[in-house]
Amino acid sequence: MLGYNFSSFPCGTISIAPGFNFYRLYFIWVNGLAKVVW
To answer: CA 17 to CA 2: how far, in whole Å?
Structure first.
């Protein structure tokens, strides 16, 4: 639940901070992995 809530945060911040593109990609991968584990 927490990971899903945080997933929308970087998505909205990407347009404001394009430098976090790599961070968002890594976060989405971790979020997807956590979703499979949970």
So the answer is: 22
